[in-house]
Amino acid sequence: MEQSSNASNVLFVLLGAIMVLAMHAGFAFLEVGTVRKKNQVNALVKILTDFCVSAIAYFFIGYTVAYGVNFFSGADVLAQKSGYEMVKFFFLLTFAAAIPAIISGGIAERAKFHPQSIATFLLVGFVYPFFEGIAWNDNFGIQPWLEAVTGAKFHDFAGSVVVHAVGGWIALPAVLLLGARRGRYTKDGNVAAHPPSNIPFLALGAWILTVGWFGFNVMSAQTLDKVSGLVALNSLMAMVGGTLAAMVLGKNDPGFIHNGPLAGLVAVCAGSDLMHPIGALATGTVAGVLFVQLFTVTQNRWKIDDVLGVWPLHGLCGAWGGIAAGIFGTTALGGIGGVSLVAQLAGTLAGIAIALAGGAIVYGTLKQLVGIRLDPEEEFEGADLTIHKITATPDRETHW
User: What is the pLDDT of residues 53-93, one digit of tens each?
Assistant: First the structure.
């Protein structure tokens, strides 16, 4: 019976890992569809390369930082319990690798390639697992202290704060240190539109992410006996709320509509195992409003050139999700309970602080040492030709 249980759990978590791995294709195509044509190849290459760099950093350093576990044992030891610990690592790696995938969208079109790979290694090896270990492994005694003071630990079931807010708030200093794309903002204060290059690709990316998210959230139970259909329905309702809010506020703009479900899903991760479906709908709706409003303000009023809007989408909606778990997770609003709004606020603010500091240190240091931005001519030519020596759609065929 134990062997059968282990095998079932391995398959369960493995399927979750594969679904979240597929989400990285969603990140890639969301970026491909949003950036200009001269930067589409770079978007595809960055996401795949960053995932592989993340795997190395997390395997050798990050997983140990977060959980105190390493893999320097014989394969016979690693294969115990049907290799459950291996697929658990795989699953959590796909979460860790979402950090550079999130950042990629914010720094698109003007970031150097190899310095970003270095940043990925440092962020996934040290910054992300530092907070991950605090939130999900009780490192440094912070969670037990919160429980003693507020009556509950900081609750983040599937990573609204641990993954999304951390990724979005790391991206903010990276975007600010890079500066806006050339020609984006004119000297007289006008904004030059850089419309999405391919709406079908953008939509495809959003759909892949949306489908994969049900693995992201539901499989966060990590064992089959803890799986809950409530998580699935709450994810669905948050997705619906985010989409419809973005449609109304975004005035039918397809870019907003296809980011709306992502905003809702980002926000519901933390409390998806606790909320009533109506609470999840409200959480997703607020997230959709938050994304559209703050994306517009960020781009047009504050002149922050966050290409895919990763700070409002992941940073702000993720932070809202952490707080929302402390509101809609309470029994008074139909939730299961066991959460504290004070603990949720404290955990969310801690994640933001660590992310901001980590992002500023990593990208600030790289900017000083090796530079993080393409030079003006390279940026004008586009990252595809500059870095990869090929474009996504060659203008003409070679005739021999």
Answer: 999 999 999 999 999 999 999 999 999 999 999 999 999 99
Residue 56 exposed, middle or buried by CB count within 10 Å (0-12, 13-18, 19+): middle
Does residue 396 carry a pLDDT above 60? no
Q: What are phi and psi of 111, to 5 degrees?
A: -90, 140
The mean pLDDT value of the chain amounts to 96
The DSSP call for residue 90 is: H
- In terms of C-beta distances under 8 Å and separation of at least 24 residues, what long-range contacts does 193-198 make, across chains too? 194/36, 194/307, 196/33, 196/34, 196/254, 196/255, 197/32, 197/33, 197/34, 197/35, 197/36, 197/37, 197/40, 198/32, 198/33, 198/37, 198/40
Residue with tokens 């809950």: 228
What are the pLDDT digits (tens) for 212-244? 999 999 999 999 999 999 999 999 999 999 999
pLDDT of residue 398 exceeding 70:
no
**Cβ(17)–Cβ(98) below 8 Å:** no
Q: Hey, how many other C-beta atoms are within 10 angstroms of the C-beta on 192?
A: 11
How large is the average pLDDT for residues 39-47? Answer: 98
Per-residue tokens: 194: 């850089």
Work out the pLDDT band at 188, boundaries 50, 70, 90.
Answer: confident
Helix (H, G, I), strand (E, B) or coil at 109: coil
Helices (H), ranges, the chain = 2-34, 40-57, 63-67, 75-78, 80-96, 98-106, 113-122, 128-137, 142-150, 166-178, 199-218, 229-249, 254-268, 277-296, 310, 317-328, 341-369, 376-381, 383
* Calpha distance 300→231 (Å, rounded): 36
CB atoms within 10 A of CB 227: 16
pLDDT, tens only, 148-172: 999 999 999 999 999 999 999 999 9
> What are the structure tokens assigned to 398, written together?
């070679």
C-beta separation of 160 from 321 below 8 A: yes
d(CA 5, CA 8): 5
Name the residue among 55, 48, 52 with its Cα closest to residue 388. Answer: 48
